[in-house]
Backbone:
């Protein structure tokens, strides 16, 4: 960030000069104004990062100046100073958006500390705006190819988009995408492809778990006529079909152990040999693999070759589950609502507020895919123009009890898992509810409701 620009608005020249002298030594660029009209002239001429405003001023009250600055100059932060520290004035200033408040006389070091804190905030805000703009640009660029914009503004999704952009510029690098089922791994693979120089070439997506064992080599490497019973014509495999483009291999962890050395050889040499032939075919393919398994664990169990794992692991992108990026739930919900209402030709004008309260608290074991189908089902069930909770939850059932997950001790209901998580968080927070709520990433009110729901004694 460039040198911070600070405006001092005070009708006492001595105070202005004293503050300016100190801040210039602190390496800030400082401007003085003895009246609001002079201050607004300076605000209109240059970008002021921080305005230090006295409450008692000629022409207009300092609180009115604060209000006008926050209305006209959204990126200018305001620190208020006064010789009359009435609590009502302090509260009003903070509510109007002042970032700090000082009573005269104050220590210049304290003022510097407040400005440094503001500087750190402005740097963070600038970085956030840059990330948001970057995501928006990438999203708009991808929309024609993947059918819609990238939905999600969470820090985790910003990281994913950043990694997509980074690796797309190196269009020969193998990428491994990890994450639970339904998190959108194929969408990320498509994004990498369409951001790269290969975007005008083929993108093929194959689920390794869906290809029968006896057809594996034929499907991926191809075969010659007569190579086996039923091979009535020559056939190119997926590697050849993806020449100059991208081959997305989903569920790579289900690849047969006996087939893995052949895949490794193709990745290393970029040559495939069809079944029934001795002649290799040179290919130029970018491979993107995905898994919802822990390949580390499969390697330890002897089910996945370590050399293939290290070859695939050149660049890794992890997609977090939806429950770990709750701020993306509502935007995704609204996107699916618009898309399915249009596709099903139903007019949905309203959504009950309880739906918006419930969605971020739901566990979403099926991640984005589950949310997508949940919205489609709700729209189909809705006979009017308003969606309510009854369209998402079956009467007489609690959604949290409809799913179970596998733990080290066997199958555990999400209901029980949620209860145990709350109990553990309360214990970790020494039973201070506000601290436990922060650990769980929910509001204090939501925690109280869950404590009542599970009848947890504190």
Residues:
């Amino acid at each position: 960030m460039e040198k911070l620009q600070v405006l001092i608005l005070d009708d006492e020249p001595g105070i202005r000069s004293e503050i300016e002298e100190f801040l210039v030594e602190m390496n800030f660029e400082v401007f003085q104004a003895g009246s609001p009209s002079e201050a607004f002239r300076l605000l209109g001429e240059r970008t002021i990062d921080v305005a230090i405003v006295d409450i008692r001023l000629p022409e207009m009250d300092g609180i009115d100046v604060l209000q006008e600055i926050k209305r006209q100059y959204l990126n200018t932060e305001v620190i208020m100073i006064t010789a009359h520290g009435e609590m009502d004035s302090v509260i009003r200033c903070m509510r109007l958006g002042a970032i700090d408040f000082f009573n005269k006389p104050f220590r210049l070091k304290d003022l510097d500390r407040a400005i440094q804190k503001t500087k750190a905030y402005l740097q963070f805000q600038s970085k956030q705006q840059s990330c948001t703009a970057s995501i928006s640009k990438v999203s708009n660029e991808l929309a024609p190819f993947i059918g819609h914009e990238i939905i999600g503004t969470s820090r985790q999704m910003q990281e994913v988009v950043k990694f997509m952009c980074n690796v797309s510029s190196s269009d020969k690098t193998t990428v491994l995408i990890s994450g639970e089922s339904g998190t959108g791994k194929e969408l990320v693979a498509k994004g990498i492809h369409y951001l790269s120089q290969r975007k005008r070439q083929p993108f093929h997506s194959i689920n390794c778990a869906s290809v029968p064992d006896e057809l594996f080599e034929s499907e991926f490497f191809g075969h010659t006529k007569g190579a086996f019973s039923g091979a009535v014509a020559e056939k190119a495999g997926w590697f050849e079909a993806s020449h100059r483009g991208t081959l997305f291999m989903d569920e790579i962890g289900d690849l047969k152990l006996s087939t893995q050395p052949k895949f490794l050889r193709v990745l290393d040499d970029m040559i495939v040999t069809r079944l029934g032939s001795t002649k290799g075919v040179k290919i130029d393919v970018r491979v993107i693999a995905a898994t919802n398994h822990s390949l580390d664990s499969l390697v330890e169990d002897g089910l996945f070759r370590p050399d293939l794992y290290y070859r695939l692991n050149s660049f890794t992108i992890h997609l977090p589950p939806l429950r770990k990026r709750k701020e993306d739930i509502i935007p995704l919900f609204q996107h699916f609502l618009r898309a399915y209402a249009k596709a099903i030709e139903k007019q949905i004008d309203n959504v009950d507020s309880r739906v918006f309260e419930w969605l971020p608290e739901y566990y979403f074991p099926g991640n984005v895919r589950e949310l997508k189908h949940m919205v489609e089902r709700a729209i189909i069930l809705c006979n009017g123009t308003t969606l309510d909770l009854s369209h998402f939850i079956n009467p007489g059932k609690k959604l949290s009890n409809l799913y179970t997950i596998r733990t080290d001790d066997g199958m555990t209901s999400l209901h029980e898992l949620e209860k145990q998580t709350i109990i553990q968080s309360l214990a970790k927070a020494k039973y201070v509810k506000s601290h436990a709520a922060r650990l769980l990433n929910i509001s204090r009110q939501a925690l109280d409701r869950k404590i009542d729901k599970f009848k947890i004694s504190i």
User: Anything to note?
Assistant: The first strand starts at residue 5 and ends at 9. The chain has a mean pLDDT of 84. The chain has four domains: 5-124, 150-320, 323-393, 404-454. Residues 108-146 form the longest helix (39 residues).
